[in-house]
Amino acid sequence: MRVLIAGGGIGGPATALSLHAAGVETAVVESAREVRPLGVGINLLPHAVRELIELGLGDELAAIGVATAENVYCDRFGTRLFTEPRGLAQGYRWPQYSVHRGELQRLLLAAVRERLGADAVRTGARVVGFDDSGQRDSVRVRVLDRATGTVGETAARALIGADGLHSAVRAALHPRDGTLLWSGIRMWRGTTRAEPFLTGRSMVIVRDGDAELVAYPIGGGRVNWVCQVRMSEPGPLTGEAVWNRAGRLADVLPYFEDWRLGWLDVPGLLTGCDEILEYPMVDREPLPWWGSGRVTLLGDAAHPMYPVGANGASQAVVDARVLAREFARADDVPTALSRYETERRAATAAVVRANRAMNRAGARTPEELARVTDTYRDTTGGDVRNVNARPSLSCR
């Protein structure tokens, strides 16, 4: 029997590759019928890049990503407030990459098919339930075939719920989980064909009152941008949180149309975008436990977080590597999953809370910005000394 992974985003394929490296047979089921390079840019921090390099994906990652060299904080007139080196320039042994999320997903899934076989990834299939009771050496997993509408059942050595923010596995494990929590901030995101700015490997963060812009290159002559506007106080989300919901230029442009950075045309960045996505900035309260027996959670299904510290995808990659390491070490599956959860649940809860704190900080001066960014790295274990000194998570 294989380990079955629900979800073919970032965390799912990373888990499949990591388990394969540990000698564990694995299969991925992905709800989308066709995996296309959808979405926008994300960042992979050095601690996650290290893990992908150790999986043998260093050259492919370098080919699709931009090695970010600095974060530049400025006002809406382009005046620099604070500049922070990133990745290799900051002293890490591994770079920080800005990449298109869909291209990273496609890279990981291609590696899974190449190494595990074409049948290791099944698309158009969604895990809708499971039964982990009364089974000595397996979990029974119910999978919906979206093409036929039929639900089949399969036995798996373990079930890993890497099925994202609206995880069916999480809902089954935690039926009283409650609603998503909204930060009060609405985000509009997009990628635009644009000339590189500053070093060509710079990320810019601009805040003016309740409006904030984050922009960075992701390769291929594209700049990824995120516009964030505070609309209300934090509280439970009353509407939907749909990742690929179409946004309207008319809703976001008025907040940014008079911004003049000089070296970056912010209104032109927004108006030149072919497709705008709109999304509320949400997370959930950290869970008191993730899984039980032969079932657990991973990535956004386990610990959804604000996209503030550029850490969401990175934490999913580290989840995958720790899970595989514990599979290699333990004598049985429940023990492996329990050890994985013990290590990762507290660590990721700290990141969720640190992202909230950074979002609330409202730092303005160079001193405040330096303090907030240093505190974030210290709190999340992402400081240079800690990352460079940490032993490899490789199972070999």
TrEMBL record:
InterPro entries xrefs: FAD-bd, FAD-dep_Monooxygenase_BioMet, FAD/NAD-bd_sf
Keyword Oxidoreductase: yes
Pfam families hit by this protein: FAD_binding_3
Keywords, in A-Z order: Monooxygenase, Oxidoreductase
Highest rank taxon of the organism: Bacteria
Domain FAD-binding: 2-174, 290-354
SUPFAM superfamilies: FAD-linked reductases, C-terminal domain (SSF54373), FAD/NAD(P)-binding domain (SSF51905)
Entry keyword Cell membrane: no
Gene3D superfamilies the record matches: 3.30.9.30, FAD/NAD(P)-binding domain
Cleaved signal peptide residues: none
Region called Disordered, residue ranges: 377-396
GO molecular function, one term: monooxygenase activity
Name this polypeptide is given: 2-polyprenyl-6-methoxyphenol hydroxylase-like FAD-dependent oxidoreductase
Organism of origin: Streptomyces iranensis
